[in-house]
Design a protein that fits this description.
alpha+beta; 33% helix; 12 helices; 25% strand; five-stranded mixed sheet; six-stranded mixed sheet; 437 residues
Length: 437
């Protein structure tokens, strides 16, 4: 399948609707309310999202952040993996419930309210939170909103849920594939704090394909490693990262490898969507490292290039400053693996070789081609900032899926790895300077 292109927000919304049919056995509901955070003199709006599986299923898997200060939903989620069944996922935006007083207690309180409304065990409800770190979860207000939330549940589309879980995301993210008589449908939110090992993201993947609990968990671990663990926006690792996979078991599994391949496809595309929708992102950068001694080194080189502020800024300005790429490759090898002989290393950008045999291969014509490659991958051009210096993206949909393609061949092995990242823009600084206001 080729790259998607969209000419309007309406066109993309129609495509999302075509992807968003819920698999058999699932429902989705959303509601919202206003509240006053205890930590600030302000009024905020919170969205609640409910995903249900009827009946509750033993076939579920999840992967969580490795941050040493996880949010309360992550702490609870790790325990939920030991439970026999999962019947619902409750997600709130605006507050991440990280490091807040009574975080676990409040999360369990809202889970219990959902369980009572659905008639299931409270331990069969998984919480999820995303938003400001440090604020207390408004448990009383959430509990009061649960009856209205349950009434909105429908079995047609996951798109309302994809829209409701967003925070600083510009647009919702939905991906799906068909496996035999069943489907895999995934939604995601995530825009900043993306790296490493997952991202500041919540990902929920629903399927009616009948796959055992153990196989689901094996398939998810493999898919995450090659997708959500291979992206970066700003090198900061969130405290709330969660990827959940649930099977209702309503459709037969024709082939486990076909399921695994479909799951990988959904995860890879959602991961790319998260990068493309990163805070202030105007270019997606794809770094493919080949010829490495092993995959760990290949991934390390890719992450070094992706996370270089100088590389990111050059790409943001459509400036093919290839010396910065060489610097990032050499920095990782020289500091982490000085035993590697880098004399056979070559680098190309947009299919143009820029470094080989120990020297750069540059000229005015190649400079023009490289700049054109960067410009073609740009998602939008910036409008001037407002009086406060705040940048507002001129589009609220991704017009294309083009990437800035950087290839590094280390020439000393057979391993390869691909990492996705993004540029560093004025908009990124503006977004994060004003995140809570």
């Amino acid at each position: 399948m080729g790259q998607l292109t969209f000419h309007s927000e309406t066109e993309r919304h129609e495509w999302l609707r075509s992807q968003a049919d819920l698999p058999a056995g699932f429902k989705a509901g959303v509601t919202s309310f206003t509240f006053k955070p205890r930590e600030m003199n302000t009024t905020a709006r919170m969205n609640l999202t409910l995903l249900t599986c009827d009946p509750p299923t033993e076939k579920f898997a999840a992967v969580f952040t490795r941050n040493a200060f996880p949010g309360a939903p992550v702490t609870i989620g790790r325990e939920r993996l030991k439970e026999k069944k999962l019947g619902a996922v409750l997600v709130n935006n605006k507050i991440s419930n990280v490091g807040a007083p009574d975080g676990v207690k409040n999360a369990e309180t809202v889970c219990a309210a959902v369980a009572a409304a659905l008639g299931i065990d409270p331990r069969a409800v998984l919480p999820g939170s995303t938003g400001v770190i440090g604020w207390r979860l408004p448990a009383e207000e959430i509990v009061a909103a649960v009856p209205a939330l349950v009434k909105t549940c429908q079995d047609q589309s996951v798109l309302p849920a994809a829209e409701a879980i967003m925070t600083t995301d510009l647009y919702p993210k939905v991906r799906s594939v068909t496996i035999g008589d069943g489907r895999i449908v995934g939604i995601a939110k995530g825009a900043g704090m993306i790296e490493p090992n997952l991202a500041t993201m919540l990902v929920y993947i629903l399927t009616d394909v009948d796959v055992s609990r153990n196989d689901l968990r094996d398939c998810l671990a493999r898919a995450v490693e090659e997708s959500f663990n291979a992206i970066s926006i700003d090198s900061d690792q969130s405290t709330s990262d969660t990827v959940v996979l649930i099977s209702s078991g309503k459709a037969p599994c024709p082939d486990l490898e076909a399921f695994a391949h479909g799951l990988n496809s959904v995860c890879r595309k959602l991961a790319a969507d998260i990068v493309r929708n990163g805070e202030g992102v105007k270019h997606v950068i794809r770094v493919t490292v080949t010829g490495a001694p092993d995959m760990i080194i290949a991934k390390g080189v890719g992450k070094s290039v992706i996370n270089s502020p100088l590389v990111q800024c050059a790409v943001a300005g459509n400036d093919p400053n290839v010396g910065r790429v060489l610097m990032a490759v050499g920095k990782f090898i020289g500091n982490e693996h000085p035993d590697i002989n880098a004399e056979n290393c070559s680098i190309s950008i947009g299919g143009q070789t820029v470094f080989a045999n120990g020297v750069f291969q540059l000229d005015p014509d190649r400079e023009t081609v490289l700049r054109a490659h960067l410009e073609s991958a740009q998602l939008y051009e910036s409008d001037p900032p407002d009086a406060r210096g705040v940048f507002t993206p001129p589009v609220r949909f991704p017009p294309h899926e083009k990437t800035v393609d950087i290839c590094v061949d280390l020439g000393c092995g057979g391993a390869r790895f691909t990492v996705l990242g993004a540029d560093r823009t004025h908009e990124y600084i503006s977004e994060n300077a004003d995140y809570r206001s």
